[in-house]
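Intended use. Records like the one below are meant for learning the mapping from a protein sequence to its folded structure. Do not use them to infer anything beyond what is encoded.
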Amino acid sequence: MTANALRPGSPSSEVPCRQGGDGAGDGGTGLGGNTLARIVEENCPGMLAFAGLVIEQLDAQAGTWQFSTDEGQTWRAIRTDLINRPGNMGLALDRDARLRVLPFAGHRVSGARVAFHTVQRAHGPGNGSYRAYASDDREDGSRTVTLVLGLSAINGAPPVVHVPRPRNKRALVRRSAAAGATPLTGSLALA
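Structure written out for the chain above:
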């Protein structure tokens, strides 16, 4: 499928992109967020190599958006009021920056819309800054790509952790008595 631009008049992408990725691949980090490189590579496999991107629009109804430029050690809130307004203001991030969304309490959000375009040069000291971008005729010919992603594709899939089920104390007493184990003492013996 071809991704479409959010704003009327913006160039659309000719890059085939999958919608609603689940982020279940290896390297998921839970609420540590996924790197922008991973989000783009998993959902737009035909996209050319890039050094960074400019986020043009985020789904403000999904929750609080945050980014990290230091591998998830610190997180900064994204000002969706700046990038979602008319005009061409975006958030410039390098490909190794992380992105996450924290859903609002009481809201059931299954996916969120993200619009961006890639750039061929790293942002350097401007990584994480808000800056104007050209709506048409970009120097590297990149186009605006809009994806609707599942939250786990953005936030990463949490690692699978085996948690043993709590056992019924009476069942434990019966099982140990049937196995001929030594008598239990303490609170288990009273059950």
